[in-house]
Write a structure and sequence with these properties.
InterPro entries: Neur_chan_lig-bd (IPR006202), Neur_chan_lig-bd_sf (IPR036734), Neur_channel (IPR006201), Neuro-gated_channel_TM_sf (IPR036719), Neuro_actylchol_rec (IPR038050). It holds the Pfam family Neur_chan_LBD. It is a single chain. The strands form two sheets. Strands 1, 2, 4, 5, 7 and 8 form a six-stranded mixed β-sheet that branches. This protein has a four-stranded antiparallel β-sheet with strand order 3-6-10-9, covered by helices on one side. The protein folds into two domains: about 10-190, Neurotransmitter-gated ion-channel ligand-binding domain (Acetylcholine Binding Protein, Chain: A); about 190-315, Up-down Bundle (Methane Monooxygenase Hydroxylase, Chain G, domain 1). The chain is α+β, with helices and mostly antiparallel strands. It contains five helices and ten strands; from the N terminus they run E-E-E-E-E-E-E-E-E-E-H-H-H-H-H. It is elongated. It has helices spanning about 190-205, 220-240, 250-275, 280-310, 310-335; strands spanning about 10-25, 30-40, 65, 70-85, 90-100, 115-125, 130-135, 140, 155-165, 175-190. Strand 1 (about 10-25) and strand 2 (about 30-40) form a beta hairpin.
Length: about 325
């Protein structure tokens, strides 16, 4: 076994060959990933050996693995020996991984969210022995043509890389391992939720204003119609809950559905107290209440659309710009 050089540099390149289903409920995604690693091997300098003539079990290895893989992914490994113009030897490891990867999804903007799909490569050796860095010659790649979940997600072509040291043994924080995270990004297509949840909820809440047409002397009929609309809104909320993990914060869809239920509740409360008002002022007061509620609901919907454009959609515009910069970077590198 060759001696491990001090702080060996291992160059990493990750290629998302095939991105499969993105499971929001389980917070994971499936993918076929190619992880390429390259490092110096001074003992083979100037020998011009091929991979068939080398026993790689006796050659130093950084012992890489995927930190956020779930279960037992299928892996195939292949080694090559590369030489530069000076005769310096490099070991090239190509690892094809087919499996499921865990991802902590940020669902604040659901269903207008953009999610990171990350593959984290870690060395089993401590960070003072091995440092994982980006490959200087090879680029991370996302194969968009083989994306499986195209109907529900839009996959961007750019990638981002970040390096960190992670602690494996919580009992001893001094032992850290070098890790390199490569992420691509996918934006959810919100059309299904807009037409089937947002639009239907908007119509249900709008119908609550029709209950004002029932005679005020029959509050039981008004309340019956309003309670029916509330139960319908609750049913829609249950459908949304079944498509999301149990998170402790509100998504954009949660906020909209809760606002609609608050509006329906206010309408129900008004129908319950309208009969207690004096007959002389009852009609005028109800006209004011109906007008105020209608204006508030209209302003809320306009403000909600503006908030979506300013915040969740701004992130999508940023992703489009990063795709454009990534494409221009590839064209620039191809010229030189």
């Amino acid at each position: 076994m060759t001696n491990n050089p001090l702080q060996a540099k291992v160059q990493i390149c990750v290629q998302f060959f095939k991105v499969g289903e993105i499971d929001t409920l389980k917070e994971q995604f499936t993918a076929d990933v190619i992880v390429k690693a390259k490092w110096r091997e001074p003992t083979l300098d100037g020998q011009n050996k091929s991979a068939e003539n080398v026993d790689f079990s006796k050659i130093w290895n950084p012992k890489l693995y995927i930190e956020n893989s779930y279960g037992d992914p299928k892996e195939q490994m292949r080694y090559r020996i590369l030489y530069n113009d000076k005769g310096d030897a490099y070991i090239s490891e190509k690892r094809v991984i087919k499996g499921t990867f865990m991802e902590n999804l940020e669902l604040d903007d659901f269903p207008f969210d953009v999610q990171d799909l990350t593959v984290t490569v870690v060395s089993e050796l401590p960070s003072y022995e091995v440092e994982l860095i980006e490959d200087e010659t090879d680029h991370h790649v996302v194969n968009r043509q083989s994306f499986v979940d195209e109907q529900e997600w839009f996959l961007y072509m750019h990638t981002e890389c970040s390096r960190k040291d992670i602690v494996i043994d919580q009992a001893d924080n001094s032992i850290r391992r070098s890790a390199l995270s490569v992420k691509c990004r996918a934006a959810r297509r919100p059309g299904y939720f807009v037409w089937n949840i947002f639009m239907v909820t908007f119509l249900i809440c709008t119908l609550s204003f029709a209950t004002f047409s029932v005679e005020k002397e029959k509050p039981e009929n008004r309340l019956q119609l309003s309670f029916t609309l509330i139960l319908t809104a609750v049913a829609f909320k249950s459908v949304v809950n079944n498509s999301l993990p149990r998170i402790s914060y509100l998504t954009y869809m949660d906020k909209y559905l809760l606002a609609a239920m608050i509006m329906l509740t206010v309408v129900c409360c008004w129908h319950a107290i309208v009969t207690t008002l004096p007959d002389a002022s009852r009609d005028i007061v109800e006209i004011y209440v109906l007008s105020i509620l209608a204006v508030i609901y209209f302003i809320y919907n306009i403000g909600f659309l503006i908030m979506i454009y300013l915040f969740p959609w701004r992130k999508r515009r940023t992703m489009v710009q990063k795709d454009r910069d990534y494409r221009e970077g590839l064209l620039f590198n191809s010229k030189f």
